[in-house]
Amino acid sequence: MKDLFLLMATFIAYFVKGITGFGNTLVMSPLFSFVVSNRVTTPVDLIFSIPTNTYIAWKERKNISLKIVLPLSIMLFVGIIPGTFLLKTGNDKMLKAILGVVVIGMAIEMITRKYSKRKINRTNPLILIIIGVLSGILAGLYGIGALLVAYINRTTDNKSAFRANICCVFLTDNIIRLFIYSYTGILNMHVIILSLLLSPAVIIGMMAGMKVYSMMKEDTVKNSVIALLIISGAVLIIKSNLI
Q1: Where does it reside (predicted)?
Q2: Cα 31 from Cα 6, distance rounded (Å)
Q3: Do the beta carbons of residue 120 and residue 154 sit within 8 Å?
Q4: Is 199 exposed, middle or buried (CB count within 10 Å of its CB: 0-12, 13-18, 19+)?
Q5: 38-62 burial, b if ≥16 CB within 10 A, otherwise e?
Q6: Which of 41, 127, 136, 176 has a CA-to-CA distance to 72 between 20 and 30 Å?
């Protein structure tokens, strides 16, 4: 039953990614956390994220802006180091409680977000640094880059540019964490074997998501994901016995 649950959770996560281009980690992390440690969930999702982000970034490569990607990538690197340390040494109960709060916060941000149709040419450097470092910490802990999603959405002027830059930044994050996780031992043989077992769910989920994308309203999918995130985050907080 545990393996079946993990397969279904992986399918749902990458079904969402196939539709939106992101969101796999926000769905996968809380669902996986019901049955496995975050020290397993995060590196497993990392292994899946590298090929999927590479595919989307390459497909949308003409829309990549180095002015967006480079500074965010540097700030991500700064935050990933302490985030990885917390992942390796932190109490798993505490990590699940923090993840619950983060997931609910991201869901609320998705509800209240106002999409702008105009490209923002000037950005506050302080905001860039805060978002980049916090995103790095969350990426090191859970592989979550939702703060970047909100930021890049406001600094790009079309859907293709958004997908290109968000996946390119995520790919940079993936490569950095691949080396750090390997060095610290977070990425181990158990994680690799589990990833191989779950890989069919990733492929099927991505294919199904991209197919449904052409037939389904984006708002319907977004609202479903938000509901799932809020429920999952609330249950994680309750299960942690910290509230």
Answers
A1: Cell membrane
A2: 8
A3: yes
A4: middle
A5: bbbbbbbbbbbbeebbbebbeebee
A6: 41
Total of domains in the chain: 1
Question: What is the structure's pLDDT at 71?
Answer: 84
Q: List the one residue out of 197, 192, 190, 187 whose CA is nearest residue 4.
A: 197
What are the φ/ψ torsions at residue 151 (nearest 5 degrees)? -70, -50
> Which residues 6+ apart lie within 8 Å of 90 measured at CB?
141
What one-letter code names the amino acid at 156?
Answer: T
Select from 24, 6, 2, 26 the least CA-distant residue to 15. Answer: 24
Asked if 74 contacts 129 with a C-beta cutoff of 8 angstroms, the reply is no
Q: What is the pLDDT of residues 28-37, one digit of tens each?
A: 888 898 888 8
DSSP class of residue 142 equals: H
Q: What is the pLDDT of residues 20-79, one digit of tens each?
A: 777 788 788 888 988 888 789 889 999 999 999 998 889 888 999 888 888 888 888 888
Q: What is the mean pLDDT of the chain?
A: 80
- Outline where the chain has alpha helix (H): 2-20, 24-32, 38-59, 66-89, 92-112, 125-142, 146-155, 159-184, 189-213, 218-239
